[in-house]
Specification:
Length: 177
C-alpha cells in the first residue's frame, strides 16, 4: 500500500525508550505538531492509564489505543509517539507502516529498567519481577518494532539533543531521495 501521509513521523519502542521526550524535541526542531497516543487516551477518558487497566483490563486499553491511532495517523505532518504495546495488533502495525516514517527507538533492558523502575504509571510493570517483565516484553516486541521501522536508532547513553539532531539530518536525507 502506498503511504498516504509520508510527512508523519511515528515513534515506536518499548516503554522508557524515549518516544515522548524525543518526539517533543523532534516536533520543535521540525516545526510539526506533537501527539502522544497515551496522552490522548488520558485526555479523552479523563482518567490515568493505570485506572483504565484496572477497570477495563489491558484489552480495553488496547481497543482505546487502536481508535486513537486510527484518528491520529490520518493527520498530516505530525510527530506521533505511540504506546509501547501498540505494535501487538496487526491492524495497528499496518496503520503505522502506511502513514508515516517510522522510527524505532531501541534501548537495552538495563537502560529501560533504569528509566522506568521508579515509575508507578506503568501498569505492565506492576508485577513481582518488573525487570524480567521488561526483558520478556522486549523479546516479544522487538521483531514487531523492526517490522514496521524505517529507521532503528539506539537510544543508549547519548544525549537526547544529539539523537534529535541525528534524526533531523537522517529524515532530511530520506526526504531528499
Amino acid at each position: 500500500m502506498q503511504r498516504t501521509d509520508p510527512d508523519n513521523i511515528i515513534l515506536v519502542g518499548l516503554m522508557g525508550s524515549g518516544k515522548s521526550t524525543v518526539g517533543r524535541l523532534l516536533s520543535r526542531q521540525l516545526h510539526l505538531p506533537f501527539h502522544d497516543t497515551d496522552q490522548e487516551i488520558v485526555r479523552r477518558t479523563g482518567v490515568s492509564i493505570p485506572m483504565i487497566f484496572e477497570v477495563e483490563g489491558e484489552s480495553g486499553f488496547r481497543r482505546r489505543e487502536e481508535q486513537v491511532l486510527l484518528d491520529m495517523v490520518h493527520r498530516d505532518g505530525v510527530v506521533l509517539a505511540t504506546g509501547g504495546g501498540i505494535v501487538m495488533s496487526n491492524v495497528n502495525r499496518a496503520l503505522i507502516r502506511d502513514h508515516g516514517t517510522v522510527i524505532y527507538l531501541r534501548a537495552t533492558v538495563d537502560e529501560l529498567w533504569a528509566r522506568t523502575r521508579h515509575d508507578r504509571n506503568r501498569p505492565l510493570l506492576q508485577v513481582d519481577d518488573p525487570r524480567k517483565k521488561l526483558s520478556d516484553l522486549l523479546a516479544l516486541r522487538d521483531p514487531l518494532y523492526r517490522e514496521v521501522a524505517d529507521m532503528v536508532v539506539d537510544t543508549g547513553r547519548q544525549p537526547v539533543q544529539a539523537m534529535v539532531s541525528y534524526l533531523v539530518k537522517a529524515l532530511a536525507k530520506r526526504a531528499a531521495r
